[in-house]
Design a protein that fits this description.
about 180 residues; mainly alpha; 2 domains
Length: about 180
């Protein structure tokens, strides 16, 4: 139950992070659009001014100041449009680690890795214990079968022989070495 709450909390945190990122991008895009709108609103005034300047009677006098002024205004217009286009471009990035909320990233990733590592260790030790248990159990069964055969042979020999042999066998049981 607590783990589900942690995962839900992590999912909620990730959702909040994504929504915040999207909202900042939308805000940036709105700002860029408003800059473009302002630049476009200024353009008709500049164009009208240029048209009025061009509609004035042309004098034969070679005064290049007006042409230089028009050239300068066109340069300024070109630079503003270039700046607006520059701000629109998004850089291409490949990130190995997140730029924001690193703590949440590490908590989720390493929390899962440690959990999986713990599960693998438990499974590994359980497997080794099961193999050891079955080996010891089969070894014990073999030893039991072996001692049962010896015990049955002893009883059969004891029951089938005379009293002198029975006394020797009883003496051997009493004097046998203890393990």
């Amino acid at each position: 139950m607590e783990q589900e709450h942690k995962y839900e909390s992590a999912e909620n945190d990730m959702t909040k992070m994504v929504l915040e990122e999207i909202s900042t991008e939308v805000h940036t895009l709105n700002q860029n659009i408003s800059d473009v709108i302002v630049a476009l609103n200024v353009l008709p005034e500049k164009i009208d001014r240029l048209k009025q300047e061009l509609q004035q009677p042309v004098t034969v006098k070679t005064d290049l100041t007006r042409l230089e002024h028009i050239e300068d205004s066109l340069r300024v217009l070109h630079n503003t449009v270039a700046e607006l286009n520059y701000h629109k471009k998004r850089p291409f990035q490949i990130l190995l680690f997140p730029e924001q909320d690193r703590k949440l990233f590490y908590r989720i990733v390493f929390g899962r890795w440690l959990l999986y590592l713990l599960i693998m260790l438990v499974l590994n030790h359980t497997y080794k214990w099961a193999i050891h248990y079955t080996d010891k159990k089969t070894e014990l069964q073999f030893e039991t079968l072996k001692t049962d055969r010896i015990h049955k042979a002893w009883i059969e020999l004891y029951n089938s022989r005379n009293k002198n042999l029975k006394k020797l066998m009883d003496k051997a049981i009493i004097n046998r070495p203890r393990n």
